[in-house]
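lol ok so funny story. i was supposed to be doing the assay writeup but got distracted and ended up predicting the structure for this chain instead. priorities right. anyway since i did it might as well share w the group, maybe its usefull for someone
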Amino acid sequence: MPNSHLHEPSKYNIGVSLSGGGAKSIAHIGVLQALLENKIEISNIIGTSGGAIIAALYASGLPFDRMIEFVKKGKILSIFKPSFPFTGLSSLAYLEELFVEFKIPNQLEHFNIPFSVGATDLISGKHILFNKGDAYPLIMASCAVPVIFKPIPYDTYLLVDGGVMDNLPIGSLSSSCNYTVGVNVMPSTPQKQDAVDELTEIAFRSANLAMSQLSELHTKEFDLMIRVASAKNISPLAFKEYDSLIEIGYNDASSLLSAIKALPKSR
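and the output, tada:
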């Protein structure tokens, strides 16, 4: 698997949307590796919740070995560790420190390829895709699962997890790209009872069930859907399972590469 990417022009002009899914979002790294190993370059990317973090790393041009190093950092666990009682996440410092350390742009307009972040505005009750503005607070807002994390004020908005209303948005990809690919790391699958005994597991599972159903509604909007179903037995809080998740994402995407390669160069 390759360790770097240069964002060379793609013959396919493909737009990709990465879903949320807690720790399972790490599987997106494997999906992206599989695509680029087969010279399928992404021209435009959207990220929601945990998918927004991975999309940001990719859109910044970060080499894959550095992307993996990012998710291995111990502090990333603190980003998703809620405080109790439910006062929410107290600071963006951990995520901001990681982004600064890995030289991720702090403005959405400054990424190497077009990059959009999905979030839900509690005030208007609408899902919003941001392609301009401050990247760090918007990405954190996209990850702010309601009740577990407190909303993020931004401009005139009060933002929470983008997956609340659309966990796999297609946005302008259909009009700006020749082909669109959705990557869903949270397809709805049964879970063992002991996998949802903890309070945080119950909250994540409840939210993810709704997000999964919303994602499935968008299936027909994309030219191709990659469902990372092999991660079904991994908890959305299992951030230490990064090696397994990356491998699962790579293998599940690889099984669909023939469908992508069969696409004509333009249409």
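Residues 199-217 form the longest helix (19 residues). The CA atoms of residues 174 and 207 lie 27 Å apart.
back to the writeup now i swear
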